[in-house]
Design brief:
The protein has about 1450 residues and is mainly alpha-helical. Helices cover about 40% and strands about 5% of the residues.
Length: about 1450
């Protein structure tokens, strides 16, 4: 005989029997003696004799019941007769099952007689009708014999017995529900009977297919259901409750007990929640409303709930087979076997891991119900394990022999036992009960073979409550939930014990005895040092097989801790236990696998570091170690049925909440929870930074889920931004990192910048190009990186990034036509915008020839659809040879914008006007005020416009020409002043026609009469020279006769009269002329000649004609008959000035507005919220620090840019602004906070009043065409040339394709963005967004109704550590929420401003990308110019135009 076995059986476990019933006596002995007390007198006779008597009497009694023939009145008329017959019936119920008909008749008789408690039937004896309670108690006691298992019976006879048992149970259910006659004694007898039959059937070890296996769930469900009815009708006495508790502890080896216990607890919990927290608390729907009668008071429900909760004792005992088997029935089994084994060796105990898991899941379900996150959809898997086809796998996943098979209970011809009430509506309310408890027909017994399973049940994971961790799908915690301490007071002891299963915690060292007593709490979870008194357990019941239940408990504890509200305190003893449990649960196994406990903790701890939990950061190292197992592993193997994507998402949430800790706490030491005596130096937060940075990089390297990738990209940008600002503020100098190995090992901002740029660009081209949201997030990150200026960065890294962006655009544009969609074009547009940011922030890149060529080729590709320089070997296509087919109009517009940025802004932003304006601040009035002819105080625009000539060239550029020189210019050169209004802004130029450049013109003399130049020397005298006709040598030559052959002239004259006469006339003429000249000389000898002077300087030039001609806008030739490229406008028209002002009020940049609110704790009124900022008192100083990092303050009256409202934007008021008060308000009345770059401007407004909605603004009410996305290849053109030049499209407005009512949409995207600073994080649930919208008017609404669900909100909550928690809210839509901020991210104060600003800009940019009706600013301006052309153009032929130019103004 094993004496140790008996010693343990007689030694009661102290913890199991202390409690609320310790002072009361149990009724267990009454249950054990029930058989002897109600024994029939026929037991005194032999079986044969008694059997014969019974068969005859019972057959006669059954014949009167009306089953097979009409009912007759009972012949029994006295108490004596009835009691004698009851002795016979009592014996008949104990007959062997071979006498099934006799037993059936006995059951029918008693069931009919029990109708006396309802409406008595005719067959019921009169004495029973007169005193039904007394007889009912005896009948109920006799029916116990029916439930006693018979030995050595076959399956068929057992099924027959089960059918009769079901008949009895249904009758008792009906009586409990409907009877109005039951007395307290009868109720107690009924409950004791149910306890007795349950104890008889369920106490013995489980045997497959016996009657206990058939009836297990049925008898338990009836017991609990009738017990609940009794609580409402006649509340059970403490001895009964104590007996119920003791009995249930004897049945804990049965799976059905835990399932029914869970069911009752959840039903009662749902009722407790409804009256404790009211109708607004999330309802716990489980479909068993009929289980609780309507007459049950709230106090009764609360008493019953707490008592049932403690019915099975400590659930942790389910992990101790030596405790579960400490019952008399298990002892009898051990003694009755051939070899006296320990009771804990029984095969049925192999189901304990599954039972323990179900018990912990039931507790977890109640915890989730109190937190308000319980979902009815998971009751099947949480409470009953779901579909029972998997239950065999769940209990013994690796068993080869199928010993764990389901058996039908009750027989298939009977109705399912899950119908606990006879009410016909019981299966029609709420969720079908099959989803709650599983099909009873497959309720299984647990009989295991000697081949033990190698592992415990596979938990359906510890995510029983939270199935998704995305911000859009996770169930929010109930605002009115109880405090964490309250839940831990109730369930903490069980959950902590379960969480510490298998943990071998070291005992305190002797020198630690003087430390505080709270550390003793940790010792209770360490394993005993001596286990000699514990029997050896089978391999299937070792402590590691209970890991699923332990994981569930850890996950539940994590959910409780993450439910902490702002300002709520949790007892230090609970925090210490929790931290220790998490530390033990995250221990890394030698095989470095991700176990179930690690999965449970990671899945349920997303918010752990976002709350102000005291000392929670001691867990940072162990969490980082766990994340290093999960995140970098692409082929992670999990034992539990958890989605790998969800696990990675929860891990990324944890990672994003830890990234700023190293730089925030720097050299703060992370202390150990337990002093292990190790000599290792303590770790500091700063030492964790390289591990965290590598985690982000490695996780992003392998991530494939879009949402997870989005979160990692935001986290990566946070790392770079925070490190960059930290190094700049702290003036940290980094050693030179020339090699890639140095960059990989460094965690400096430069190293992170290089690694992030390379990784994101590489994955963008290789993996992410087909996903819209991921591509947008990656491009947003690259845009943000471009704005981070790090001293160590070199041009090669930035050049590589721009080259990758260009390659990305080329790839996206070259995809086949079926792949071209709105989403694809959105990514191309975003890439062009990103490329613009890189070039604007790093203008030196354009000095690189290769980079400039690459960017211009991509711009050409975007505008025209092809490159002039194609692949190697292809001919170069000139522009006039190309057919322009851009991917879409949106892509063309984005490419034009990039090209304009390159030509106008790169290297020149900000200009002399500052970043507030990329256009000139000069207009017609401002220019004329500098002219001498203009009155000083005149500011009339119409008068000023008359001085200008207006032309439009290329259909999209308005030229305003002023021919009058400005007053400060004294240089008399042809001068023209030009105001150029184009799609990209307004620009002012003054031009002069010069023959020499200024540096060669020299000093000019402006004397009115410079005079004749003075001679250099006297004029020489002219010598008198006698002319000779022949040389002197001729006279010395001797004459001959030949010389005499030519006669002399005189001889000839003398010989010829006619010649003589002519000669005389000639002589006379000569003499006369000599006389005239002599007289003239005498007359003019006294006349002084007037000196010549130069003509006066000309100031009146036709400079307009000169300018237009010199710039090629005028030509005299008649090349073709096409419309002229220059169109004159009629500036004298009535509305011309108004349209000109409207054009000037169309900003060439995008404009957005962010409204900032400060919400004090528990504020829910919009007026109170906006009133907060009127005074600095009571507002966190960090709030003002934050808003000043968003932008710089500007005065509304003096600000030429966007101010947050169209009525005050893009104009400078002449009046002086009032003197600002001591505390400047940024509500838009006098000041706003402003930020701008060359492409966008954003105003940050802090409203201080709630204003009524504005009427539609006239300034933005022009009738502009809506510019829809379309491919130029789809547009049918009849042009002579196949080219459809971009500029040609601008000459004549192209009527866009309209789609019904969309044509009326406003060209602006009125994105409402709020930044809300919360003192209490929970206030984000009650923010009155609809009321606050009245303080967020911008003038762009035009009567549109903005829903609160369309508002994008960035919540910021300052934690006690000085870090800030971020929460994002808004419609995700197709383009998702923008980055870099991610929901749940924890930020440092230094990085807060830039990240919020980038996120707001990206939110608005994404909304514009997603809008079908959005027009880029330069398109709006171009359409306005085209509208003005149609309204004000002068219909002129070319000669008329030239005549107009030659005419005076």
């Amino acid at each position: 005989m094993n004496l140790g076995l008996f010693n343990r059986m007689n030694l009661k476990e102290s913890s199991e029997n202390k409690g609320m019933y310790s002072e009361w006596t149990s009724l267990s002995l009454m249950l054990q003696n029930n058989d002897d007390a109600n024994q029939s007198v026929l037991e005194k006779f032999g079986l044969t004799t008694s059997k014969d008597v019974t068969l005859g009497v019972v057959r006669q009694l059954a014949s009167n019941l009306g089953i097979s023939q009409p009912a007759e009145p009972s012949p029994l008329v006295t108490d004596k007769e009835v009691q004698w017959c009851m002795e016979v019936l009592c014996f008949g119920l104990s007959l062997p099952l071979s006498e099934h008909e006799a037993i059936k008749d006995c059951v029918n008789v008693y069931c009919e007689w029990l109708s006396a408690l309802l409406t008595p039937k005719i067959c019921v004896p009169q004495p029973i009708v007169e005193d039904p309670n007394v007889y009912a108690r005896k009948i109920i006691a006799h029916l116990h014999y029916l439930f006693i298992p018979r030995k050595d019976e076959g399956i068929d006879t057992i099924n027959r017995q089960a059918v009769l048992c079901h008949r009895v149970l249904r009758t008792l259910q009906q009586i409990a529900h409907e009877s109005k006659l039951l007395e307290r004694e009868t109720w107690e007898a009924l409950l004791l009977f149910l306890l007795a039959i349950n104890d008889t059937l369920l106490s013995p070890p489980t045997v497959k297919d016996d009657v206990a296996d058939q009836l297990c769930e049925r008898v338990l469900s009836v017991l609990f259901e009738i017990w609940l009815i009794a609580c409402a009708q006649c509340f059970p006495s403490p001895p009964l409750w104590k007996t119920l508790r003791e009995c249930c502890m004897n049945w804990r080896h049965r799976v059905a007990l835990i399932e029914q216990w869970n069911r009752v607890n959840l039903v009662l919990t749902s009722k407790v929640l409804s009256f404790m927290y009211g109708p607004t608390f999330p309802e716990l729907k489980i479909g068993d409303d009929d289980l609780i009668t309507h007459g049950m008071s709230n106090d009764c429900i609360a008493q019953s709930w707490y008592r049932f909760l403690n019915t099975i004792g400590n659930p942790i005992s389910l992990t101790k087979p030596e405790v579960i088997s400490q019952t008399q029935k298990f002892l009898q089994f051990a003694i009755s076997t051939d070899n006296v084994n320990d009771p804990c060796q029984h095969p049925c105990l192999q189901a304990l891991p599954l039972i323990f898991l179900k018990a912990i899941k039931g507790i977890a379900g109640q915890v989730d119900a109190f937190l308000g996150v319980a979902q009815a959809i998971w009751w099947e898997t949480v409470i009953t394990g779901g579909c029972t086809t998997d239950k065999s796998k769940e209990a013994a996943p690796n068993q080869t022999s199928a010993t764990y098979s389901p058996s039908p209970t009750p027989p298939t011809q009977r109705r399912l036992a899950k119908s606990f009430s006879v009410a016909p509506s019981s299966v029609s309310k709420g969720i079908p009960k099959s989803s709650l408890i599983g099909l009873t027909t497959s309720r299984s017994s647990v009989v295991a073979t000697a081949s033990a399973p190698s592992s415990g049940p596979s938990s359906t994971s510890s995510i029983s409550s939270l199935t998704s961790f995305g911000p859009e799908s996770r169930t929010p915690l109930a605002p009115g939930r109880p405090k964490c301490n309250s839940i831990l007071h109730l369930f903490g002891e069980w959950l902590f014990e379960a969480a510490f299963l298998g943990c071998d915690l070291q005992h305190r060292q002797p020198h630690d005895q003087n430390k505080r007593n709270s550390s003793v709490l940790m010792e209770s979870y360490s394993q005993p040092s001596s286990i000699s008194d514990i029997p050896s357990l089978p391999s299937s019941l070792t402590i590691d097989k209970y890991e699923s239940g332990k994981a569930e408990a850890l996950g539940t504890l994590c959910r409780i801790m993450c439910a902490k509200k702002t300002g709520e305190e949790i007892l230090p003893v609970y925090l210490a236990r929790f931290y220790l449990a998490v530390q033990q649960g995250l221990k890394i196994a030698p095989n470095r696998e991700c176990g179930e406990t690690m999965v449970a903790i990671l899945m349920n701890s997303s918010d752990l570091f976002r709350l102000d939990l005291d000392g929670v950061r001691v867990l940072v190292p162990v969490f980082i170690s766990a994340l290093e197992i999960v995140l970098p592993d692409k082929d992670l193997k999990l034992n539990s049925n958890v989605s790998k994507t969800e696990l990675r998402r929860a891990s990324i949430h944890l990672l994003s909440s830890m990234l700023v800790l190293p730089l925030h706490f720097q050299n703060v030491v992370i202390k150990d929870l337990i002093n292990t005596g190790s000599s290792d130096r303590p770790c500091t937060f700063g030492q964790l930074k390289p591990r965290l940075m590598n985690l982000v990089m490695n996780a992003l390297q392998i991530e494939s889920d879009p949402q997870n990738t989005h979160m990692l990209l935001g986290s990566l940008f946070l790392c770079v931004q925070d490190s960059s600002i930290y190094e700049k503020v702290e003036q940290v100098t980094q050693p030179p990192t020339d090699t890639s190995s140095n960059l990989l090992s460094s965690d400096s901002a430069h190293a992170l910048f290089v690694r992030a740029t390379y990784l994101v660009c590489h994955r963008l081209i290789s993996s992410w190009k087909t996903d819209l949201n991921v591509s947008l997030a990656a491009l947003e990150l690259l845009s943000g990186l471009a704005r981070i200026h790090i001293k160590e960065s070199d041009a090669m890294e930035c050049k590589r990034a721009v080259k990758w962006l260009c390659d990305y655009i080329v790839y996206q544009c070259s995809r086949p036509p079926p792949a071209h969609s709105k989403d694809l074009h959105s990514t191309i547009v975003a890439a062009f915008q990103c490329c613009s940011v890189w070039l604007l922030e790093h203008p030196y890149l354009l000095r690189d020839k290769d980079c400039l060529t690459t960017v211009l080729e991509v711009a050409e590709l975007g505008v025209s659809g092809t490159k002039s320089v194609g692949k190697p070997g292809e001919n170069v296509k000139m522009k006039e040879q190309k057919e322009l087919k851009p991917a879409s109009m949106r892509v063309r517009d984005a490419a034009e914008n990039l090209l304009t940025c390159i030509l106008e802004q790169v290297g020149y932003f900000p200009n002399e006007c500052g970043p507030e304006s990329i256009s000139s601040l000069l207009d017609e009035v401002a220019l004329l005020q500098h002219c001498n002819s203009w009155p000083t105080n005149c500011t009339d625009q119409a008068t000023a416009v008359e001085k200008f000539r207006y032309f439009v060239t290329e259909g999209s550029v308005v030229l305003a020409l002023l021919e009058e020189p400005l007053g400060n210019d004294q240089d008399p050169q042809p001068t023209v002043t030009i105001l150029i209004r184009g799609p990209f802004g307004r620009h002012a130029w003054t031009m002069q026609l010069r023959h020499l450049p200024r540096h060669r013109s020299g000093t000019k003399c402006h004397a009115p009469n410079p005079g004749r130049p003075v001679v250099m020397q006297e004029t020489p005298l002219c010598p008198q020279v006698k002319q000779k006709y022949f040389p002197d040598s001729v006279d010395r030559v001797t004459q001959c006769k030949v010389d005499q052959s030519i006669p002399l002239l005189d001889t000839v004259i003398a010989q010829n009269e006619e010649i003589n006469e002519d000669t005389n006339k000639l002589v006379q003429l000569i003499e006369r002329q000599a006389t005239v000249e002599t007289n003239l000389a005498a007359t003019q000898s006294n006349f002084v000649a007037q000196e010549c002077t130069p003509p006066p300087v000309v100031h009146d030039f036709q400079t307009s004609r000169l300018f237009l001609s010199h710039f090629g806008l005028l030509s005299l030739g008649d090349e073709n008959d096409e419309a002229p490229t220059l169109t004159a406008l009629d500036s004298s028209a009535g509305d011309f000035c108004k349209d000109l002002s409207l054009l000037d009020h169309l900003s060439p940049r995008t404009c957005d507005t962010v409204h900032i609110f400060y919400v004090k704790s528990q504020q829910v009124d919009a007026q109170d919220i906006v009133n907060n900022v009127r005074t600095e008192q009571g507002i966190s100083s960090y709030f003002f620090e934050f808003i000043h990092t968003l932008g710089w303050p500007v005065e509304v009256n003096k600000h030429p840019g966007w101010t947050g409202h169209v009525s005050t934007s893009w104009k400078v008021s002449p009046q002086e602004s009032p003197v600002a008060s001591r505390s400047t308000s940024y509500d838009g009345s006098t000041h706003v906070l402003y930020w701008a770059d060359a492409c966008a401007e954003i105003a940050f407004v802090v409203p201080s009043t709630i204003k009524p909605a504005d009427p539609p603004s006239e300034q933005s009410s022009f009738n502009a065409s809506i510019w829809y996305e379309r491919s130029l290849s789809e547009t049918s053109t009849t042009s002579k040339d196949k080219r459809a030049l971009s500029l040609e499209l601008d000459k004549q407005p192209v009527p866009p394709r309209r789609s019904g009512p969309r044509s009326n949409l406003h060209p602006f995207t009125n994105t409402k963005i709020m930044v809300v600073w919360l003192e209490s994080f929970e206030d984000h649930l009650n923010l009155p967004i609809d009321d606050l919208l009245n303080s967020m008017t911008t003038g762009l609404e035009r009567g549109a109704i903005i829903k609160s669900s369309e508002v994008l909100v960035i919540y910021l909550h300052l934690m006690a550590s000085g870090l800030l928690r971020v929460h994002l809210q808004g419609p995700s839509g197709r383009v998702g929420l923008a980055s870099p901020l991610v929901d749940g991210m924890v930020l440092s104060r230094r990085a807060l401003g830039p990240l919020v600003r980038h996120t707001a800009l990206n939110m608005a940019r994404r909304r514009r990308l997603d809008s079908d009706s959005y027009q880029p600013p330069h398109i709006r301006r171009r359409l306005k110019i085209q509208e003005m052309v149609q309204k004000y153009k002068r219909e002129m032929t070319k000669p008329e135009l030239l005549t107009y130019l030659f005419s005076s103004t």
